[in-house]
Specification:
single chain, 474 residues, mainly alpha, 2 domains, 20 helices, 74% helix
């Protein structure tokens, strides 16, 4: 079940919200845990048992880690990490590794949605208990809710236990918090439905063209559309998850911060899928030695971490190469740091970063390295298809509008407008004239935008059947 589906928006979510407010406060965790398991069962059926098994396993492992010391504690942690990784390896990677070793046996399985996310979340919990950063959760109900909370169960953000441990015990659902959550959810839903989906339709159509029919202009358009699609798709989901969390009284971590304004690959990974990049830093890069070891070892650690980052996204060579591609440029930036003294170098840094990221997305999206090579060759000017791209786009005003808006909103335009309106509101307040009129105009403006987005998003959902969510498969 996806958040943009009719069954979620008009059935499950209203029922869960009503139950949350109708039941006494002490039963709210019970309601959310039941809703989370139902949400997962709706889409994954019998694999809900795997999720329940993860909850039970990690609850008792964490209590065991808290009561052990020394070598026994380390052994128990290793067992816990292996137990969490085994289902992920079996269901997601076994066929890939059999192919590497030329074992002629198809053992591919259905990949349960969100397994990578709740596995990493459970591992971080065990490691933090081992490091004595957090105590083990004493109530299996709270542990279950932490691992399976439906707003971020399927695709993150990856939440650390210490971020919401207090909220699991006590939280307040305020009127302002609930309203802010609804607003954030609608903004995320509109990013997904109004921008990511139409961009995805165009990207799918272009990537499906035979190489002989693909022109260089089309190839660049397809790569740009997919780059924007995956950003609005995933960041939109994160916005919806954070918004839903606010509706239920939780504050979930931010996961995106306008990654396409980055001026280096290092900066990009500080802005893209923040919860994953910080997880890899804290639970893999730093334990490997981080930047405390020698320079060569440090560069090797970067390459290794991003190779595993690519593999985390999928069991295919394209994902491995995508991770290596980013790791390579992170290494190069360590060797030759980018200077940002003037606007020219800042502009070069942005252009270089976006080009590297876009090439990486072509590799990421391709079914094989051969397909990626052929597509990139066309982007480099070796295409055989007909041109006339601008003329074609002129005949598609709806898509052209969506594409332009997607390009503009990839930059912090809305945030800047909100900050300026608040600053203007403060200036008028200091001058003590038209304070009420100014405040009302700001509120009415935001409300009008909210209502417009609601209307456009809901009629689009009702009219279209194309609502894929890219990160379900990762």
């Amino acid at each position: 079940m996806v958040f943009s589906s009719v069954s979620f928006l008009f059935l499950l979510l209203p029922i869960v919200l009503c139950c949350t407010f109708l039941f006494p406060v002490k039963y709210r965790n019970h309601v959310l845990l039941a809703a989370s398991l139902l949400f997962y069962f709706w889409g994954e059926g019998v694999f809900t048992l795997l999720l329940i098994g993860s909850i039970v396993l990690n609850y008792f492992l964490a209590k065991g880690l808290e009561n052990c010391k020394g070598r026994k504690q380390t052994i128990l942690l290793v067992i816990g990490v292996c137990c969490n990784l085994f289902p992920l390896f079996l269901l997601k990677y076994i066929d890939f590794f059999l192919q590497i070793f030329h074992v002629q046996q198809d053992l591919s399985f259905h990949l349960p949605a969100g397994i990578s996310f709740f596995t990493f979340q459970a591992i971080s919990y065990l490691v933090d208990v081992y490091r004595k950063i957090v105590p083990a959760e004493q109530k299996i109900l709270n542990c279950g809710l932490y691992i399976s909370m439906f707003p971020q169960l399927i695709a993150g953000p990856i939440v650390r236990y210490h971020d919401i441990a207090k909220q699991l015990v006590q939280r307040t659902i305020s009127r302002d918090g609930f309203a802010g959550g609804v607003e954030r959810f609608i903004f995320g839903l509109s990013k997904k439905v109004l921008l990511a989906d139409p961009l995805g339709i165009k990207a799918d159509a272009i990537f499906a063209l035979p190489i002989a029919e693909l022109s260089t202009g089309q190839a660049w358009l397809g790569a740009t559309c997919f780059s924007l699609q995956i950003y609005y798709d995933f960041s939109g989901y994160s916005d919806m998850a954070i918004g839903l969390g606010k509706m239920f009284g939780f504050t979930l971590p931010e996961n995106f911060n306008y990654p396409y304004v980055a001026r280096s690959i290092r900066d990009f990974w500080r802005r893209w899928h923040i919860s994953l990049s910080t997880w890899l830093r804290d639970y893999l890069y730093i334990p490997l030695g981080g930047n405390r070891c020698g320079n060569r070892r440090n560069l090797f650690n970067l390459l290794l971490v991003f190779t595993l980052c690519g593999l985390w996204h999928g069991a295919a060579w394209t994902f491995v190469v995508w991770g290596l591609w980013h790791g390579l440029f992170l290494v190069l930036e360590r060797i030759v740091p980018l200077k940002r003294e003037n606007w020219l170098m800042r502009g070069f840094g942005w252009g270089y970063t976006f080009l590297v990221v876009m090439i990486g997305w072509v590799i990421f999206r391709s079914q094989s390295m051969e397909v990626a090579y052929n597509y990139l060759s066309v982007m480099a000017g070796f295409g055989g298809g007909e041109g006339g791209l601008l003329a074609r786009l002129a005949n598609e005003p709806k898509f052209l509008t969506e594409f332009i808006m997607a390009c503009i909103l990839a930059f912090p335009v809305y945030g800047s407008m909100v900050k300026r309106s608040l600053r203007w509101q403060g200036e008028q307040h200091e001058q003590k004239w038209n304070v009420v009129a100014v405040s009302v105009s700001v509120v009415v403006g935001r409300l009008a935008l909210f209502v417009l987005l609601c209307y456009c998003t809901l009629i689009t959902i009702a009219a279209q059947a194309y609502h894929p969510f890219l990160y379900f498969q990762f």
